[in-house]
Structure formats: C-alpha cells, structure tokens
C-alpha cells in the first residue's frame, strides 16, 4: 500500500524564533507520521538575550515508583540552580501521578511541571517524547537533566533530536560556568582515557544524562512545598503508532549490583578464572556482591551484569574492595564515589591507590584467602578487637 504524504502543519508563532523544523518523522514511504504532526517540533534558538531560564529534572517513574536517580539529579540540580540563581523544577509524566507530586518538592524542586494522561501510563517513546518536547517548547528550560537508565537513554535522544539541541550522555560530573550560564558536562572520552568537558553553546535546553549512583541522594525535606503546573497532552490515541502489548518483568534470583552496600570486585591482576573465584568467596563471606573490571568480563570470568565502569555499571556502595584492578579511568568513574575503597594490587603505583581509602600492596590471589578467613570469622561473631593469627 502506498501512503500519501501529509503536509506538516505550520508551526505557531514563537516568542524566540520564526524558524520551524520538520517533524521527527517526515518519510513519504511511511504512513505513521500523524502522531508527530500534531505537535510541530521547532528548535529553541539562542538570540543575544537568554531564551531560557531554570533547571529541569525529569522524574522517571514506573507504576508509581520513582527511579532513585531522579532524586540524585534533584540534589545536583539544586546545587547548580543555586549557583545560577534560578529555579529548580521537576517534570513528571504519567497517569494517576498526583501522589508523587509532593515528593518532588521534598527532594528539592521549586516547581513541578506535570502531565497526567492515560496514554502516558505505560512508557512509550512516542507519547513521552511528545509530552516532554511540548513542555520544553512552552516553558523554555535552560538545562534539562535525565537519568541514564534504559528509559532515560531512550527518551533523551528523541527529545534532543526534536528540539535540535545537544545531548551529553553518561556524565560523571556536572558544573556550571556562572558568567556564561553554560552547563559543564564532563564524561570519559576516547575510550575512557581522558575526561572531556562538553558545552552546548547556542542551543537550549542544554541536555545531559547521568548514570544512577554518580551523585548522592539528597535528604528528604517533608516541610517543603511548591506549585504544580498541569498541562494537557492533547494526543489522539487513534493516531499514535506505538502500543505496549505486554510487559515482562526481569526475574532475578540475586539483587542489583548498583544497589549493593558491599561489593568485592576482581580484575585482570588475579591472573585466572580460578583465582577470580576467590572474589566470589570473599563476597559470600561478608554478605556482598561480586563486581568485575572490563578485562575480567571480557576474559569470561564474570557476566556483563557485574561489570563496573564506564561501559558497565556505576556503583556507590558503603564498601568497595578492588582486587587485582589497576584503576584505569574507565573503571574509576564507575566506583570512585564509594564510601570506603579498599585496593589490593601488587603494583604500588597503580592508579587505583589514588582513590583508595585503604591500600594493600601485594598479590591479590595470595591475600584474598587470608582476608576471607579473617573477615568471615568476624562476620560470624568474633569481636573486632580479637587478635587472630593469619
């Protein structure tokens, strides 16, 4: 069947620019452009005067449960907003989301922009990106922060493309140039060998995604309140092209590594898969989970779901034990914010010691059995002051 191409409607006058941009999808071979044609997608350009104001944090939620990274971003967003002397706002999309509105203020938001619509209850890129673009075009945020979750990564790219703005993914640091009001977005580059600070100089909003556990979660302030700005989605359900048919939950027999309080991680310095089992024994003895460096995963010693670093997970446990891990930047960005870091490496100049709370210079494969025996005994009731012969 050959589909006729519909003409895109004219964009309404803009207070900031007269330029219009075609819809996300404008392909004459497809017949599914109607949903996007309902909302003209235009860039927010940068005249000499500032076209945007305020910092926004996208509050990701699923079935009434907010992703923790959203509150972590509220914490760093509050710091940035105070530096720029501008408001911090949350963005909440979904259905029956009224109970979540108070939480946004308690975690730092001054204002909350929200759309409550049945079409937003199951997440779809189509409806949620249109909703977020619609809000950005109406209120012109200066900065938009989104968690680098599966949903956040899916959504952020579509929104940045629609708004014709820049997006820096997987940031490990955020700051602002106060004089020029630019978001300083730092992330590993060139295979993780350097840290690059990226700026979006002339497009708004300046967008960045940040992995879970990169920033700490702020303290909840029950006394805080603010204003909710409600908007309508205004989409015709019959003209959307995406539908959630079924949701299959991940069935796990173990916890999530990025939520663990204790992690014992092993690297290539252990020498073999058999020696990597020493990491598993220590983790089991002290009630932790195993982690691994990228070389250890690539060697088949541990599954990818346990990889820590730029190409794996970012973790923030109370205790992180790194055995046989040298400490390349790719790994450090994924664990350097742990409360206590214990590094075991036979190279005294290994970079891992620069971020370690405690360092042990020695062969991890030799030391781990003794450490496991000692800590295992203490975990099972031996007083901390008890002297034991190793």
Sum up the structure in keywords.
disordered C terminus, alpha/beta, disordered N terminus, 390 residues, 7-stranded parallel β-sheet, 5-stranded parallel β-sheet, 2 domains, single chain, 10 helices, Rossmann fold, 25% helix
Question: How many strand units?
Answer: 17
Q: What percent of residues are in strands?
A: 15-25%
**Structural shape:** elongated
Number of domains: 2
**What structural category arises from helix and sheet content?**
alpha/beta
CATH topology of the largest domain: Rossmann fold
Q: Would you state the CATH class of the largest domain? A: Alpha Beta
Chain-averaged pLDDT: 83
Secondary-structure arrangement, i.e. CATH architecture of the largest domain = 3-Layer(aba) Sandwich
In spatial order, strands of the major sheet run 7-11-6-1-4-5-12
Distance N terminus to C terminus? 77 Å
CATH superfamily of the largest domain: HUPs
Order of helices and strands: HEEEHEHEHEHEEEEEEEHEHEHEHEH
Q: What composes the largest sheet?
A: 7 strands, parallel
Overall radius of gyration: 24 Å
Low-confidence stretches: 1-50, 384-390
DSSP helix fraction? 25-40%
In DSSP terms (H or I, runs of 4 or more residues), the helix count works out at 10
């Amino acid at each position: 069947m050959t589909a006729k191409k519909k003409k895109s409607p004219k964009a309404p006058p803009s207070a900031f620019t007269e330029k219009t941009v075609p819809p996300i999808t404008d392909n004459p071979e497809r017949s599914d452009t109607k949903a996007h044609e309902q909302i003209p997608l235009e860039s927010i350009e940068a005249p000499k005067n500032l076209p945007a104001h305020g910092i926004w944090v996208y509050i990701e939620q699923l079935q009434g449960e907010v992703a923790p990274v959203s509150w972590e971003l509220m914490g760093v967003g509050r710091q940035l907003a105070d530096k720029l002397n501008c408001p911090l706002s949350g963005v909440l999309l979904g259905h029956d989301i009224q109970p979540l509105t108070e939480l946004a203020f308690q975690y730092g938001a001054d204002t909350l922009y929200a759309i409550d619509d049945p079409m937003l209850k199951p997440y779809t890129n189509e409806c949620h990106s249109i909703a977020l673009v619609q809000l950005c075009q109406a209120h012109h945020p200066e900065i938009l922060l989104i968690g680098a979750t599966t949903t956040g990564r899916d959504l952020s790219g579509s929104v940045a493309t629609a708004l014709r703005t820049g997006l820096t993914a997987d940031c490990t640091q955020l700051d602002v140039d106060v004089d020029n009001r630019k978001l300083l977005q730092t992330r590993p580059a060139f295979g993780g060998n350097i840290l690059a600070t990226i700026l979006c100089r002339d497009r708004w909003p300046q967008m960045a995604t940040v992995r879970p556990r990169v920033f700490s979660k702020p303290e909840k302030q029950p006394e805080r309140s603010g204003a909710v700005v409600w908007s309508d989605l205004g989409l015709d359900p019959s003209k959307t092209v995406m539908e959630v048919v079924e949701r299959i939950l991940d069935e796990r027999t173990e916890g999530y590594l990025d939520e663990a309080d204790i992690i014992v991680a092993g690297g290539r310095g252990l020498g073999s898969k058999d020696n990597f089992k020493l990491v598993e024994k220590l983790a089991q003895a002290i009630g932790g989970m195993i982690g691994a460096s990228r070389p250890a995963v690539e060697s088949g010693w541990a599954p990818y779901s346990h990889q820590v670093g730029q190409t794996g997970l970012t973790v923030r446990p109370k205790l992180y034990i790194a055995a046989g891990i040298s400490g390349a930047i790719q790994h450090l960005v994924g664990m350097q914010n742990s409360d206590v870091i214990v590094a075991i490496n036979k190279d005294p100049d290994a970079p891992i010691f620069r971020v370690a709370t405690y360092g042990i210079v020695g062969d991890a494969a030799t030391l781990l059995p003794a450490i496991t025996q000692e800590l295992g005994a203490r975990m099972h009731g031996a007083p901390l002051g008890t002297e034991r012969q190793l």
